[in-house]
Amino acid sequence: MPNRLINEKSPYLLYHAHNPIDWYPWTEEAFEKARNEDKPIFLSIGYSTCRWCHNMNRDCFQDEEVAELLNRYFVPIKVDREERPDIDHVYITFAEAINGSAGWPLTVFLTPEKKPFFAGTYFPKRSRGGMIGLIDLLERVKDLWQIRKEDLIEESNEIVKKVERKYNRVLKGNVDRDILNKARGQLESSFDEKFGGFSKRPKFPLPQYILFLLEYGKKFSDNRAIDMAKFTLENMYKGGIFDHVGFGFYRYSVDHKWLVPHFEKMLYDNALLGLAYTKAYEITGEITYRDVANKIYEFVLRELTSEGGGFYSALDAETENEEGKYYTFEYNEIIELLGKELGKFYCEHYGITEEGNFEGKNIPNLIGKDLKSITVQDMDKLDRIRNIILTYREKRPKPFRDEKIITSWNGLMITSLAYGAKAFDNRIFLRKAKEAADFIIANSIDNEGNLLAIHIDGKSYNYGFLTDYAFFIYALLTLYDVTQEYVYLEIGKKLTKKMIELFGEEGALYYNSNISEKLIIRPKDIYDGAIPSGNSFALFVLGKLYTITKDNKYYEKALQIINSYGGNINRDPASYMYSLLFLIDVM
Q1: Cβ-Cβ contacts under 8 Å for 76 (sequence gap 6 or more)
Q2: Are 528 and 536 in contact (CB under 8 A)?
Q3: pLDDT the model gives residue 175
Q4: Does the pTM exceed 0.85?
Q5: How is domain 179-196+213-221+277-311+402-586 classified at the CATH fold level?
Q6: pLDDT band at 525 (very low <50, low <70, confident <90, very high)
Q7: Which CATH architecture describes the domain 4-166?
Q8: Is the omega angle on the peptide bond into residue 105 within 30 degrees of 0, that is, cis?
Q9: pLDDT tens string 347-381
Q10: What is the C-alpha radius of gyration for the chain, rounded to an integer number of angstroms?
């Protein structure tokens, strides 16, 4: 029999609807049950394209023994982090405070009052190699709750107090005059001279770093800054982190040279990377960056675009329980498909060998190749071959596509496509950007003018978070820039007024609105991670509105926001790169 998740809309929750576990969605009914039966909450947060979430489902949540313990001694709750980013935002902050790091699947034990007392990530069923198994962990927590419940509740209260003091603290102050130079130096000190990027491994694209270096280099005639951005962009494209058959970027690389990716493809990554490659083309005029941007957009329009015009959220990393199976090839497979002559030509060009570069198979890549040395004739030949391989690959079982249409991520993609449309004079990109914007306007603004966060199967729901407002408004203003269609400016201005009313009229804006569900803390969204912070894009919105309207209230509000966390920026500028991009424009 299915559990309660069968009535949910989220693909991730539906994925767990046939577990033997008596899952609840995040609902007051679950907490009422925990209070009435004096049980702790077992909170599990993940998302549909998460590889380790799949592993934990197979290892634990489909298991009757695990289910017996969870159903008897706990109230188990499942949350899709993309559907409820506010819940994820709160509890991953606690996990970082407790453990120093966090990730997904996120596993948190709560009191019935929603306060955490233990957090972790993936757990196997049985303890192994120094890692506690979920069975043992559940037994320990169950015993502790029965013997030391008051101590656990007291600890949870202390954890909440510490997190509120430390992690939700916003440091006021004017940004240092040399902050842009300081940020540029910070990036150079972490720059990988051999393969590009700004870390060892795992290696994330970090488009905010690239965009900053490009804009900084342009404004201050700093060729070294532009070269760091260019070198990173070139090496990312040459690596296996880019899909050289179907295009688009994967989530991140597990190695230092961009070869082996984590194979999930996310809308927001491709939106921001499309923008980065487009900017690089604008600033340098080098055709490679234009071509990569076009390939990113081609992938999004082919694989992530709904019939109504909105953009879907992601493609899974695995098929048939195997990561990368859809995307990798054996050497003989390519030879048999293309014939000996064409097959060897393709394999030599894309680093495909009999030994393989990934678990006996091959991830096509261009590592070590000089892109400028490839002749036009060879490029045309490789494109024809790629079409053959793509057609062949598409006959395989395809990765699962999460068809949530997330307002915030659509905002990023609309901005990227509209910007690309202008840079490349591409009417198709502009039409698709407008269709997506019109889809959100028609489907995800309620009768009171509130923006909604999620759209699935013809229904929009959940009040928008700060990222939904800031990203989507910026998309509308970018469309206005490109089209001069006044409707986008008018809707953008109305939503900006609503954003300030809902998320904070003083200082930095909160992550969740004053009409959203109240959680145990109300975080402020200032840090730029894989997804930009809502406050940094709010700065972009206010700056652009000031430029368009010359109304001082927008500029004054922007200064108020950035000065409310200027101390944070001064301490670690690399963590606030999108805010610094705003400063490049105004300084």
Answers
A1: 21, 22, 23, 24, 41, 42, 44, 70
A2: yes
A3: 94
A4: yes
A5: Glycosyltransferase (1.50.10)
A6: confident
A7: 3-Layer(aba) Sandwich (3.40)
A8: yes
A9: 999 999 999 999 999 999 999 999 988 999 999 99
A10: 24
